[in-house]
UniProtKB/TrEMBL annotation:
This is Arabinofuranan 3-O-arabinosyltransferase. GO terms for cellular component: plasma membrane. It is a multi-pass membrane protein. Residues 403-443 are annotated as: Disordered. Its main location: membrane. InterPro entries: GT87. Residues 424-443 have a biased composition (Basic and acidic residues). The chain crosses the membrane at residues 20-39, 75-91, 98-115, 121-138, 145-166, 172-195, 202-220, 258-279, 286-304, 362-385. Belongs to the glycosyltransferase 87 family.
Amino acid sequence: MLFRQLEPRTARTSAEVIKFALWPFAVMMVLNRVFIKAINGFVTDDYRPVYNASFEFLNGRPLYTADFSSVDPHYLYYPSGTLLIAPVAIIDYELSRWLFIGLNAAAILLAWYLLLRLFKFGLGSIAAPALLLAMFASETVTNTLVFTNVNGCLLLAELVFITLLLARKDLWAGVALGLSIAVKPTLAPLLLVAAVRGQWKVFITALGVPLTLTAIAWPLSADPEKFFTHVLPYLAETRDYFNSSVGGNGLYYGLPEWLILLVKVLMAGVVAVSLWLLWRYYRHDELFFVTTFSGVLLTAWFLLPSLGQMYYSMMVFPFLMTVVLRNSVLRNWPAWLAIFGFMTYDKWLSDRWQDVGRNLEYLRVTFGWGLLLIVVFCVLGDRYLAARREGRLQFGIDPIWIESAPDSRDGTDEPAPVAPVEETPPHREDPVAPVEDREPALK
């Protein structure tokens, strides 16, 4: 059956033309990112400190000994994360790194499939190759594989969490989220999604899993307390390098602290209003609410606290996919200008206009995250004001025209079944319609 699908055929519809064009690009992009770029590696190597710390853990030696005055990648995982990731050091470094690249690539591919199913698309839809190509062409997936970090596994944990949360399997959803929190807190804000939906059982496993793993890892580690005395203070600081948060870029460009704080407060207000409007008017539209609410929350989590790095943007893929929903807040060009800022693999450093190119490169992620949050605020705010002006707030804030807009949940990616045409036997009188109102069965 698989080989039959690969049989070269001539496209007969516009949809088939697009699919036949996109699939080779998508597959070759995946192969290039995994087997060429990732294996080649880069000067930034996030995997080396993880491997070294795992090796020290397995041999009962101290882990948290990094010199944070350097700009090299440091080992920053919790003791619970060390316990989970320690098996990578059982084999030699190069093979271990290749296997970890494969693990992340497999996790991203599985997350891609879950994302398609979440929005009711199949592998035969146009969305399948388009989404795969977009994901592996992005900076976030490319550098996750090239730098060899754990973000691909975190994306899979996020998709599993969202899928199980929507299915009301709260304890298992908490397990998926808890495993990710045990390694790093990137997805911790998603606990708020469960809280506003009243799915409190999620907290049992989401907090229980990392606490249990920490309790197991503590006696096995040589210096677990140093994570809290040595690493945690460093994580709480705002550094001025490899940091696209408001604070990080503010420090790099020498902005006064009051101005940085003012920007943070204003953006926090924008986020708070957007989240309230989503909860007040969209919480019953579960797929749209969960994916949009979590996307806004995570984008703010990258922009406002002490550290935000460009490849964190992988976690907003579910939010970006809402563009296929009729009430999406992303169906406008400013939203995609923002997404270009933090998703594209392009470099804006210029040999001719060095200052301009450097500023574009260093600020595009910060501006992209910020602009996306402003777009969501403006779209939701405009809908709210229009609905209040027209006296229909009790019915929601969606514009009336949205009802007729295309939506993936309509099953538009599947071909409509063709009803068989029955030929009317000749010389048969219709007992209901007059002869002059009838149309021939075959034209």
